[in-house]
Design brief:
Rossmann fold; binds 2'-monophosphoadenosine-5'-diphosphate; six-stranded parallel sheet; alpha/beta; globular
């Protein structure tokens, strides 16, 4: 259970800030590993811990975040939409998506941001700096919360057209309703035709994750210079990425998105913009492999 009152050795003061990830369940979150790595690397006082909070307890927990001892934190499944409703102010991306994954205080007010989109784009930029070249159309698999963020991010980078393909086509159509006619909605059976000639494919579904069914698609129709990105990172090298690699396509795994989305929050809570390094990546990979 998260502490209810700040302990004397953890004052609100920036000198030893305490942040947390709020989720349900959350005990397997790797966010503490990431933030503690940076705290140690930069020699900063403070800590980052897991706060497992049920949906019924979430509103009061977030409303009293500072009284609970925290300068801010991350919000994860299933609380991102509720958080957007509760915070005093939203950044542009969180407002556009109606989902918050990072909170902090500004002049006493709780502010909510969505850094998942930043994380996705920063990871693509870092892994394939020229990924935008010739990408006039992207194919996005899935139409859940993650897909919404990624569609928003791709549109913000000027991708003209985004084909959203989902098992439940109505959800893809709802996304089109929200984002307008640069988005097109399709059912799974149209996938081969949608992949034909595409230069960017992003899997936002849980397919391919350990414990889920594999994502079994044929990547042959993609353009020869396509980039294939998966938000799944356990396993790191999903069947989708393996197939793309075997075809000579450039691949971007999901771990980088997790690492990059953590950057803006760390800076808000602990006062220094951290770097996503190979060292940090190796630390998380070792943890995934040990699990
Ligand atoms: P997230 O917030 O991570 O996007 P989500 O909102 O639960 O999670 O969305 C999960 C996505 O994975 C959805 O697009 C879902 O398809 P449906 O909308 O049809 O449910 C997709 N998904 C999950 N399991 C799937 C499966 N077995 N086959 C096809 N798509 C699947």
């Amino acid at each position: 259970m998260p502490r209810q009152t700040p302990s004397p050795e953890r004052p609100y003061h920036h000198a030893a800030s305490l942040a947390c990830v709020i989720g349900w369940p959350a005990k397997h979150s790797r966010s503490p590993l990431i933030h503690r790595y940076w705290l140690e690397r930069y020699g900063l006082p403070g800590d980052y811990e897991i706060a497992e909070v049920s949906p019924e307890d979430f509103d009061p927990f977030l409303l009293n975040l500072r009284e609970n001892g925290y300068v801010g934190g991350n919000v994860t499944v299933p609380h991102k939409v509720a958080a957007a409703r509760i915070v005093r102010d939203l950044d542009e991306t969180a407002a556009a998506l109606g989902a918050v994954n990072t909170v902090w205080y500004e002049n006493g007010d709780l502010i909510g941001a969505n850094t998942d989109v930043y994380g996705f784009l920063a990871n693509l930029d870092a892994a394939v700096p020229d990924w935008q070249a010739g990408v006039d159309r992207a194919v996005v698999l899935g139409a859940g919360g993650a897909a919404r963020g990624i569609v928003h991010g791709l549109m913000s980078r000027g991708v003209d057209r985004i084909d959203v393909i989902n098992r439940t086509v109505e959800k893809a159509e709802a996304l089109r309703g929200d984002f307008g006619n640069r988005v097109a909605a399709f059912s799974m059976d149209t996938l081969p035709a949608r992949l034909a000639g595409a230069r960017l494919l992003v899997n936002t579904t849980s397919l391919g994750m350990v414990g889920a069914s594999p994502l079994d698609i044929d990547l042959t129709p993609l353009a020869d210079d396509a980039v294939v990105s998966d938000i799944v990172y356990v396993p790191l090298r999903t069947a989708l990425l393996k197939q793309a690699g075997d075809r000579g396509l450039r691949t971007v795994d999901g771990l980088g998105m997790l690492l990059h989305q953590a950057v803006p929050g760390f800076e808000k809570w602990f006062g220094r913009r951290p770097e996503v390094t190979d060292d940090l990546r190796a630390l998380i990979i070792a943890d995934i492999e040990a699990a």
